[in-house]
């Protein structure tokens, strides 16, 4: 009968096996971490773009609906352009939209201006005229009057990082129905 030494009878892991398990765990945690960070960035980008698109669609639909039922465009006059659009409605009201300091304001009958968009954080947008030109609204024609809208909506916090940026443009041409 041979006598076994104490080391041969002990069961366990060798140092190489233990290092191999640690290396595999580190690789799997690293890959999982990269996937999670990518998903979080994608989710942030999607939320920002949804907010920008929601505000731009709201503005576009609101202005378009009121313009289609307008009686006459007051400002800018035919062939001109600018950051203020003023028009008269069928019931005699005067509505004015103005792009000022990255926010769109709406006035009714020269009353107080009410902000239609917000540049406040979180979820705010900055509104600017497309292509860096100072012309958000342009009018053409007399009978019928046609209004062209060119605006860009961007995230209000451009320094927040790549995950929180986005841009949506509105380029719309509207025929004022009551000017035929």
UniProtKB/TrEMBL annotation:
TM segment ranges: 12-31
Lineage top rank: taxon: Bacteria
Secretion signal, residue range per the UniProt entry: none
Keyword terms, alphabetized: Membrane, Transmembrane, Transmembrane helix
Protein name per Swiss-Prot or TrEMBL: Prepilin-type N-terminal cleavage/methylation domain-containing protein
């Amino acid at each position: 009968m041979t006598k076994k030494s104490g080391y041969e009878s002990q069961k366990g892991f060798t140092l190489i096996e233990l290092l191999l398990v640690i290396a595999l765990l580190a690789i799997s945690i690293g890959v999982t971490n990269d996937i999670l960070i990518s998903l979080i960035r994608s989710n942030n980008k999607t939320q920002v773009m949804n907010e920008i698109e929601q505000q731009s669609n709201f503005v576009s639909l609101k202005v378009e609906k009121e313009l289609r039922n307008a009686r006459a465009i007051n400002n800018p006059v035919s062939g001109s352009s600018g950051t203020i659009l003023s028009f008269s409605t069928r019931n005699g009201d005067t509505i004015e939209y103005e792009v000022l300091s990255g926010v769109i304001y709406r006035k009714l009958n020269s009353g107080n201006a009410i902000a239609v968009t917000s540049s406040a954080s979180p979820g705010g947008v900055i509104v600017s005229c497309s292509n860096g030109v100072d012309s958000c609204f342009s009018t053409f024609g007399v009978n019928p009057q046609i209004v062209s809208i060119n605006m860009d909506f961007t995230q209000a916090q451009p320094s927040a990082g790549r995950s929180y940026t986005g841009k949506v443009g509105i380029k719309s041409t509207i025929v004022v129905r009551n000017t035929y």
